[in-house]
Design goal:
single chain; alpha+beta; 4 helices; 9 strands; 42% strand
Length: 158
Amino acid sequence: MAILGTARPPSPGASPAPYIPTWVYARYPGADRRQHVTVSFMVDTGADRTVLSLRKARDLIGADWNAVCQTSVTLEGIGGAQPYWEVPMRIWFRDASVQRFVSVESQVLVPFYSEVQDLAERSSERRGREPISLLGRDVFGHMRLEFDLSQPEQVVLR
């Protein structure tokens, strides 16, 4: 298996970080199974869990937000504690080695709505940047990550 990605700075002046392109589908009763969002997840080796940005989650879930977001958890990190919703999703990756797709089911975390978070993500979008979603060890922890800053165009999950 070879899932290809690239490296790019998450913000101006930052070191390049590995990103993996995916398709994320909501996995809940009543969801339109064809509804998905494309997400370029930043691989975060320090993240226990995968986190979908607030804006991408709202694009995916749409009007069913209250029906889908029922289980909450609070996680602590460098920036302090933050509440999240746990939402069942399927993440699809393109396997370049055999020209097929592979998927992983996960309880993806979605941040609770906050005006500050929403404004920050809107600002990223206005500057032509996708709001940051993090691929955590719960998903990529079963794979090997190959990433070398001297060759940023060659990020590979195996």
